[in-house]
Amino acid sequence: MYTIRQVADLTGFSPDTLRYYEKIGLLKSPQRGSGEVRMYSEEDVRLASAVHCLKKTGMSLDDMKEFIQEGRCLADHSSLWSDEDLQTVSTRSQILLKQLERMERQRQALDDLIKQTKDKLGFYNEVLKETISQ
Asked: CA-to-CA distance for 113 and 25, rounded, in angstroms?
């Protein structure tokens, strides 16, 4: 079992962020120890780490919440998928595809800025070369 400080250290979230995510239902409320201290399980830490990964992609809290709520561990299913399982996979796939498309747009915008910066830097270097050689 882990305290909120330990989970914060392991996941990169602040304790306040963990409490907020619990409040909005993104993370489930952990067990409480003596003095009502939050005690997180390994599963809680794994979920918080997964949320941290989603957050790093820039995914909105609403999309993260839907992604987490729709999800469950599908890895240990047999090859027989229920309609509910397939709907869950489809929903999660759509959320990730939307996020990937957003990140691709961000990357293109960043690539454009890098090119503009390099072009401007090249221009400045040419001006400096011409000035020095005169």
From this structure: 38
* Residue 51 structure tokens: 């949320």
- pTM here is 0.62
Does residue 96 carry a pLDDT above 90? no
Place of tokens 């400096």: 128
Tell me, what's the pLDDT at 66?
82
- Continuous H helices in 1-134: 4-11, 15-23, 42-56, 61-70, 83-133
Phi, psi of 132 (to 5 degrees): -70, -35
- Domains of the chain, start order: 1-56 (1.10.1660.10)
- Give the CA diameter of the chain: 79
